[in-house]
């Protein structure tokens, strides 16, 4: 599984790093980013939960 955050869409709500701190982090610009684009199997549920919970659908998963 791979993930990334679209910085144009992210409104900086902070949900994704609170759900999945091992994957997402807030940048200095106030937008979230994926620390590692490759999500390990043990983190997949957290990544999916963050993507589902993002209020503006800024998180892509493939
Ligand atoms: Fe941004 Fe969505 Fe995360 S708005 S901070 S990508 S939950």
TrEMBL record:
Ranges for domain 4Fe-4S ferredoxin-type: 1-29
Gene Ontology terms for molecular function: electron transfer activity; iron ion binding; iron-sulfur cluster binding
Q: Where is this region: Disordered?
A: 34-62
Question: Does Protein biosynthesis appear among the keywords?
Answer: no
PROSITE patterns the record matches: 4FE4S_FER_2
What Pfam family is a match for this entry?
Fer4_13
Q: Which UniProt keywords apply?
A: Electron transport, Iron, Iron-sulfur, Metal-binding, Transport
The protein's job, in short, is: Ferredoxins are iron-sulfur proteins that transfer electrons in a wide variety of metabolic reactions.
Q: What is the protein name given in its UniProt record?
A: Ferredoxin
Gene encoding the protein: fdx
């Amino acid at each position: 599984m791979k993930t990334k955050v679209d910085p144009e869409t992210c409104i900086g709500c902070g949900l994704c790093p609170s759900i999945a701190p091992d994957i997402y982090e807030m940048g200095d610009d106030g937008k979230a980013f994926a620390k590692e684009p490759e999500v390990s199997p043990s983190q997949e549920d957290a990544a999916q939960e963050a993507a589902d919970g993002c209020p503006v659908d800024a998180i892509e998963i493939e």
